[in-house]
Amino acid sequence: MLANDLVIEDNNPDKKGVFRPGPINLPRDPKVSFFSFLYKGLLDGLKPSVGFDKKTENKVNNAVTKVGNLLDKFSKFKADRKQKREERKKEKEAKKAAKEQEQKDNTSSQEQKGN
């Protein structure tokens, strides 16, 4: 969906029937496998053919960066929320323990007064 909105242009060929060329200018690195070269060559030719130029690439990179930042903020928010929950849970347990100790002390002091 994002690729269709931002990247892929469906006007190839255009209304006149002219195809948008996808020139490939990729030197072969002898240390890299043939299939890697084939993949990179196809990708290099397909990008301009579907309308993926430098301007579109910058748009996509900016969108990816924004989404990444948003995900980072969300992860930080979740971590902070989890930490706050743990702190509240510890406080609640401490209050409960203090209240139980107070009741225990009250019970023992009443028993001592009764003796």
Structural commentary:
This protein has 115 residues and is mainly α. 71% of the residues lie in helices and 0% in strands. The chain has 3 helices and no strands. The longest helix has 61 residues, at 54-114. The chain starts with a helix and ends with a helix.
List the SSEs and their pairings.
Blueprint: H1 2-6, H2 34-49, H3 54-114
Which structural class is indicated by helix and strand composition?
mainly alpha
Euclidean distance between termini CA atoms: 81 Å
What is the number of helical segments per DSSP (H or I, 4+ residues)? 3
The proportion of residues forming helix, as a percent range, comes to: over 70%
The average pLDDT score comes to 83
**Range of strand content:** under 5%
Shape: rod-shaped
Question: What is the string of SSEs from the N terminus onward?
Answer: HHH
Low-confidence stretches: none
| Structure summary, number of beta strands | 0
Q: Report the C-alpha radius of gyration, rounded.
A: 33 Å
Task: Please supply descriptive tags for the structure shown above.
mainly alpha
Short structural summary:
It is built from three helices and no strands.
